[in-house]
Amino acid sequence: MKNEDLRTKTCGVACRFGGVRRHLIFWPIFIVGLVGDLWSKSAVFEWLTATPLRTYDVIEGFFRLVVVQNAGAAWGMASGQRVFLVAISAVAMIGVFAVFLFWKKPSVLIIVTLAMFAAGVCGNLYDRVYNYGRVRDFLDFFWGDYHFPAFNVADSLLTVSVAILMVVTILSPPKVAKKDQLPPNDTDG
To answer: Does position 189 have pLDDT exceeding 50, yes or no?
Structure first.
């Protein structure tokens, strides 16, 4: 029996989709991120909707918790386009899970980043499906008259994961083709 056949029989589906190690990294991060996002939204909204002002100053003049429901994507883009935003989120989820499952040898950093991205997409997708198309945002940072749009834990996971992917992409050395794969030199002849 080949080693690969033995490995597949002993560890099942996980081995067919990239190995157990990859799953042991991805799923806990995904679950903690998703649960953390959904729990924080629920807890903050339940608490603040019971207060008259629906806000709480954490750091006066800089950071407060608020109750905001965003019917759009980042900065309110595509506001009111619930079906479109749900479809985009669903496609993103399929893409992330496909990359996670079928990428031959992703680094640990890429697996962590994919898990964070998936948790962020799922957290906001949950709101779009079960909260009438509106995502619950509650983190509000501001300085003087400048207000950064309110956001949530899912948005933070998405932002950090995209930033990591950008840095990894920029800093990755270019792939060098093997000598026998280089195209012929055009100066010959």
So the answer is: no
